[in-house]
Amino acid sequence: MLYKKYLIFITVILTFTSRNSIADDVSTLKDRVTREYAQSYSEDTLIISANKYKEKIEQNGRWPDINYSLLKSGDTHIREHLNRIKILSAAGFIFPQKGYSQAAVDALFFWYSINPKHENWWWNTIGRQLYLGPSALMLGNLLPSQLETQIIADLPSHPQMTGANRSDISKGVIYRGLLSDNAHRVNIGISGIKETVVITDSEGIQADYSFHQHGPQLYTGGYGEAFFNTAVFWAYQVRDLQWQFSPKQIDVLTNFYLEGMRWMNSHGTLDYNVIGRGISRLRGIHSSGTKKQSDYIATLSPDKAEAAHAFRDHVTGGNSGLIGFKNFWRSDYASKIGQNHFIGIRMNSNRTEPNESGNGENLLGNWLGFGSMFIMRKGNEYHNIFPVWNWALIPGVTSPQLAQKPADWGAISAKTSFVGGVSNGRFGVAVMNMNAHQTKAKKAWFSFDDEMVALGAGITSTHNRYINTTINQTKLNGPVTVDGVEYKRGSRAIVDASWVHHDGVGYVFPAYWYGHMDNQTKHGNWNNISSSQPNKAVKEDVFMLRIGHSWKPSNRHYQYIIVPDKTAEEVQQYSQNTPIVVLENSTNIQSVTNEAINVTGVVFHRPGNLTLLDGSILSVNQPSVLVIDQSKSEPRITLSTPGRGTEVFVTFESEGSKKQARINTSSDQRWLGKEVEVNWGIEGSVFPVIKDTFVRNGRYKNQSFGKAGYLEVKADHPGYKRNSVLQFNLQGQKIDSSTTAKLRLYVRNLGLDSHRSIIVSRLAASDWSESSLTWHKVPRKENSGPRLTIERSDRNSWVEVDVSSLIHKEGLVSLLLENPGHARSQSYVSFSSREGKYAPQLVLYRSVKSDKDAYVRDGKYVTQSFGNAHYLAVKADHGGYNRKSIISFDLSEKGVDLNTSAILKLYVNSVGKGEKTLTVSRLSDSEWSESAISWTSLPTNEAATKKNLVVSSRDLHQWVEVDVSEFIHDGKVSLLVENLTRPQSESYVSFSSRETSRGPSLILSD
Q: Does the UniProt entry include the keyword ATP-binding (predicted)?
């Protein structure tokens, strides 16, 4: 009886404690959020604004300068009334005795007395709630219960929609929960935000950390910015509460900020290419990349704090911490960041949408996304220039001289698929095969450290308007210098100038050109580009530079070099001694070399070959985009195939040597257009992993780790064990018994063991997802496969294992990596994942099975044949116990020649103690019979050349290989495997014969 009472007492105490904890979390969150909102304003600015609004508000709660008849249309008046309420509420929270809160309450009473319903759904469902929720929290106990009830009723109860809209609505759900002290409602709202913090192929964060909204439309600014601001704010606020975000969600947010937004930003100004129809709105300076967001990320991801702080400092004038070129393959966008400059390029294809119109915004932006390019050094070069812009002359674009409205809410309009880019991290290329408005052009951009080269070829149009390629149209800041002469204000033609300089940026022209330059005042009206903006005339001094291609041009071309961060004198010197060499600019190939750094960019619009400056010849068999870095002893080539996943055969011939590689670019929608590095040491066809993750048991059994930058395999006690899962796409590949498959993994680290063995198995067919695969959701194991031993010396290098026994047919192949050894805390092995530089690879080789094999034995067995045995024996022993193996291959119809590479592949059945050094040589005669071959009838060696093959106990039940290329030069070949070392009984090695499924084979490559 006493025991039961004790249990009841404990249960009551625990229940009470739990409820108190939940209530405390709600109270803590409400206090944090309220203070954060109130303190988000500069005190000086807040007091000035609040005093003005308090003084001018009328007794009935309205302001005389707001036209309330327009409250249901446009953005200006509704935003102004609600924003003033929010400012007064913040001032009242910080200065409670000055009457600001009462003014806010009066304005709220007036608001609900008319309760306007806007013609734009967004204001009714999202917009008003984003103002009313924070205002109510900051007013706190000073908010009358009637208003509190009305505001709570206005706030959503459950999340809905997708992307940024979903996160904004979820924010309203949280406000509702906080105002009503409802922890369950708070949880629903925060869960709604968490649901958006994922990598997706639809609206939201993409695999390259760009952001899509309204279909496949780049919107990292605008919707993406709104999403991130919401998600990171709440992730920070609940960092130590019951609703905290998972490590994976924090990683996604961090990478979106540092690998996405930071690459689209110049000193706090997001590239105008990525803000959608927001380009037509009056904007404040430095609207993104705030200090607070960087601090949130630094706290949530301490290992990325340095990068986050560098981004924060960049907003106020410092460097961003980035140098290089990034290809956003999901969005047809690329950016170049230098020490003191930013260049963003937006393109579109039959996979992506150019910029949209909608709600009367962006009324002239049709050409945004057709190669539009913004060049920034300080971030203010285009600030609010857009009412006076000539929208027919958008920087970077080749187009007829007309300006018109793009599609409402976005639409795919391009007919071409060969649009995208490639980057090796430092250097890169972007390409756009343009076909729009009766105008075609092959456009390419080549990014090096100090310059970007723009090429155009095949410019042809039947449009009746004049065709231009606009180089820049930006705010005029200082003199314009052309070939050393400062030009007065005005508008004039430019003929074959060598260089132009304006505002710290040089434009160099290596070939003849004709164009136009303006440096004068332009006039416009915000209302011309957005019906929600004031109907007010504005003027701005503008610099514009364009290349003219005339009317209805045919096969015209252009080339120019953008050289940022230079004075006019430095640009002049650069033009006289440029390191840039245009190798070709045609509709077939566009290519540029920077001699100073020995780097070349190439666009192959169709299969072909190109001779580089040093005489090397590069060939591809598919349309491709490449970066070739020859600054080191070994050429480093990075390649992509925009719009198409395919196998590319790359050949590089230099100084008598010939390198070849087969590269498979992904056809998976998520990775289509992503670059792949060429591995010269691999003779087979390379397939990069399309999905990879690790899973963990114990309390992490329901957690996924699909976006980690590594894969881990660990044998440990429950709760700490980890397995890794990989998937490869082999659809359309011919796979049969002659196919050799190797799994390649890049080793990051190894625990405390000197070595660790990994078992590779094949999983049952399943289209699993990285974002949802957990310990219990891993598909069942179908076939156990080979063992891969990882040693400490393997760290920071590639390892490979033959997995031919697991690769039976084309299609999706999923592999499991397990660590079966002794369980201990430091038993882990970690590999690079596809999120990193060295993604796992599956390599397929062309191989030939042996057509006959046997072993022979001396002593009393000298005349006996062992051709039907299931094994091949090799042994150095005393008389009567020696064994040699002979293997034949028929290569008559395999197209082999002196350039053919051949690897002999043998499966180890058994091996004696210690390490065995076997030798492989070619025999003079291949016309022997399995049923008759014996020690006495063994053919003689054809030549003295022998190849060594080392076999040890670690190779047991594994494949071993030896290069026998020099033995392969005609139709049939017989190879002898023997042990010529000191005779001993433990010298025994046996391999599987062709009578088994793991018989000898030759891996061939051209």
A: no
**Rounded Cα gap, residues 299 and 292, in angstroms:** 11
The pTM of the full predicted model, rounded to 2 decimals, is: 0.78
Model confidence at 76: pLDDT above 50: yes
What are the structural domain ranges in the chain?
A: 23-135, 197-317, 376-602, 689-844, 850-1005
Architecture of domain 376-602: Distorted Sandwich (2.70)
Residue 54 has pLDDT above 70, yes or no: yes
277 is catalytic: yes
Q: List, for residues 951-976, the tens digit of each pLDDT value.
A: 988 888 888 999 888 888 777 899 99
Q: Which stretches of 931-979 are assigned E, i.e. beta strand?
A: 947-951, 959-963, 972-978
- Whether 214 is a known active-site residue: answer yes
Contact 170, 197 (CB under 8 A): no
**Torsion sign across C-alpha atoms 860, 864, 867, 868:** negative
Please say whether the beta carbons of 440 and 434 come within 8 A: yes
Which amino acid is located at 517 in the chain? M
Q: Please indicate whether residue 340 or residue 284 has the higher confidence score (pLDDT).
A: 340
Identify whether 272 is a catalytic site residue: no
The size of the chain, in residues, is: 1006
Maximum distance among all Cα pairs of the chain, rounded to whole angstroms: 120
Q: What is the CATH number of domain 850-1005?
A: 2.60.120
Task: Report pLDDT digits (tens) over 514-569.
Answer: 999 999 999 999 999 999 888 989 999 999 999 999 999 999 999 999 999 999 99
d(CA 741, CA 806): 8
Fold topology of 689-844: Jelly Rolls (2.60.120)
Choosing from 62, 84, 212, 214, the catalytic residue is 214
Q: Which of 223, 558, 838, 988 is catalytic?
A: 223
Superfamily of structural domain 197-317? Chondroitin AC/alginate lyase (1.50.10.100)
HSE, CB side, 13 Å, CA atoms: give it for residue 199: 27
> 275-309, pLDDT tens digit by residue?
999 999 998 765 445 788 999 999 999 989 999 99
The Cα–Cα gap between 399 and 411 comes to 19
- Residue 147's SS3 state is helix
Mean pLDDT for the chain overall: 92
State the catalytic residue, choosing from 77, 81, 185, 277.
277
